Amino acid sequence: MKVIVVGSSHGGYEAVRGILQEAPETEIQWYERGDFISFLSCGMQLYLEGVVKNVNAVRYETEDHAKAQGVAVFVRQEITGLDPANHEVTVHDLAAATTRTEHYDKLVLAVGAVPVALPIPGADLQNVYAMRGRDWAVRLKARTVDPAITNVVVIGAGYIGVEAAEVFAKAGKHVTLIDVLPRALQLYLDEEFTAPLTQTMQDHGITPAMGQSVEAFEGDAGRVTAVRTDSATYPADLVIMSAGIKPATDWLKGVVDLDAKGLIKVDDHQQTTAKDVYAVGDATLVPYAPVGGKQRIALATVARRQGRTAAKNILGQPMKTPAVAGASALSVFAYHFASTGVKAGNAGQLGVQTKSVYVEDTVQPPFVPSAAGNVPVYFKLTYAADSQRILGAQIMSKRDVTANINAISLAIQGGMTLQDLAYADFFFQPGFDRPWNIMNVAAQAALLGKTTVKAD
Predict the structure, then answer these.
(1) Distance between CA atoms of 323 and 287, rounded to whole angstroms?
(2) Which of 7, 80, 134, 143 could pair with 39 in a Cys bridge, judged by C-beta atoms 3.0 to 4.6 Å apart?
(3) 128: how many CB neighbours lie within 10 A of its CB?
């Protein structure tokens, strides 16, 4: 059997890995449009801040290792066409400027997504960067130490934008963070959490410019000099675009079914509407555990589960993609936060009636001094108003307590209720936590009808 995998990031890598683990004799061709396979954009901040020294280490796989396992790896080769009826793809060799066709028995599309480019004047000016992929990582790294860069404007205050803002603030630049939404990180956290995070960003030299629409990039001699919004103009020697992503699927129109946003339609087994063609990753939707249906969740964890599911089905082992809650985490200077599932801020969009309880406590018992690391922790639990089923949660502290969110994700997937969580078994040791885990405390308070609990 010959399997062609298009794309080498999370989903494509996992599809290849899954097939190799169970059927290493399979003929696999693995295609990457760039010149470097398996770069992890989610590790870019670690490289830009110098935690990881070698940009080439920010990856899952190398060409040599993949080839040693029998995988035929093709870099600088782009799949530009698909003929499902004849089980063929068109391959454009970017280096040689030649085109050929390749036959497949099974095909995995891990085509991913590309940054959204704002259709505004000045978008073609120099020093307007993205923050996705190895090439951009190398360019951005150079700009962190470029003395000609003083003012940096980041457009988009999601995870990528906040990471970029922090990188350049730590590099001593003046950073402005712009988003059309009223709060930074609004898609991931409710206001109880974004308020202190916004303050800490300001304390570190980042100027939030929320609720503003970018209208133009201004320039001089071909280089960007400012960003104009509907509210103000901000000086800019460098602009970093992180205003969302769009699926890289234009070339698939009329070949496989796409939805109105260009996402590839797949069934529970990652099969597209074309026979023997599977799709995984950021260009697809995924089953959503909290409320059912499907959502777009552009996370590495999701793509890898989809890639493994595709591999299983390709090998004749029927498997459905597991429903996920979209758990994710990030650090913003001293704070560490994580969230999963439904939040008060997106419950209406998901069409579900919810209630929430918010808890402020300390990580350890009160007798443990702050000098020993006992710091405040903030936790919010969201549940269904009728059934009291757990739907989501958010947690934040200057101690890393983010792993609690993994327990909530399991609770969501297992259909647990407040009653289940209120007395669920978690360990206690005063060097680590409280006798009642903060998840217990929140669920017990919710059962009493409380909406806020603060430590005495």
Answers:
(1) 5
(2) 134
(3) 22
What DSSP state is assigned to residue 357?
Answer: E
- For residue 117, what pLDDT band results from cuts at 50, 70 and 90? confident
Using DSSP's 3-state secondary structure scheme, residue 15 falls into helix
Active site residue 336: no
pTM exceeds cut of 0.90: yes
Is the pLDDT at 40 greater than 70? The verdict is: yes
Q: Coil, strand, or helix at residue 40?
A: coil
* Active-site annotation holder among 42, 92, 204, 336: 42
Condensed to tens digits (0 to 9), the pLDDT of residues 192-234 reads 999 999 999 999 999 999 999 999 999 999 999 999 999 999 9
With a cut of 90, say whether residue 319 has pLDDT above it.
yes
Q: Is the dihedral of CA 185, 186, 188, 189 positive or negative?
A: positive
Contacts of 410 (CB under 8 A, 6+ apart): none
Annotated catalytic, 174?
no
What fold does the segment set 117-243 form as a domain? FAD/NAD(P)-binding domain (3.50.50)
Give me the residue spans of the domains in the chain. 2-43+57-113+246-314, 117-243, 336-454
Exposure string of 296-309, with b = 16+ CB inside 10 Å and e = fewer, is bbbbbebbbbbbbb
Question: What local confidence, expressed as pLDDT, does residue 455 receive?
Answer: 76
Question: What is the C-alpha separation between 275 and 259, in angstroms, rounded?
Answer: 18
Is 286 exposed, middle or buried (CB count within 10 Å of its CB: 0-12, 13-18, 19+)?
buried
**Using only C-alpha atoms, what is the Rg of the chain?**
23
Rounded to 5 degrees, what angle do the CA atoms 77, 81, 84 make?
125
- pLDDT tier at 292, thresholds 50, 70, 90: very high
The answer to whether the CB of 249 falls within 8 A of the CB of 111 is yes
Give the mean pLDDT of the chain: 96
Domain boundaries 2-43+57-113+246-314, corresponding CATH code: 3.50.50.60
pLDDT of residue 456: 64
Same CATH fold, 117-243 and 2-43+57-113+246-314?
yes
| pLDDT tens digit sequence for 392-451 | 999 999 999 999 999 999 999 999 999 999 999 999 999 999 999 999 999 999 999 999
Distance, in Å, from the CA atom of 314 to the CA atom of 19, rounded to the nearest integer, reads 8
| Whether domain 336-454 has CATH 3.40.30.10 | no
Pull the structure tokens for residue 126. 């120099």
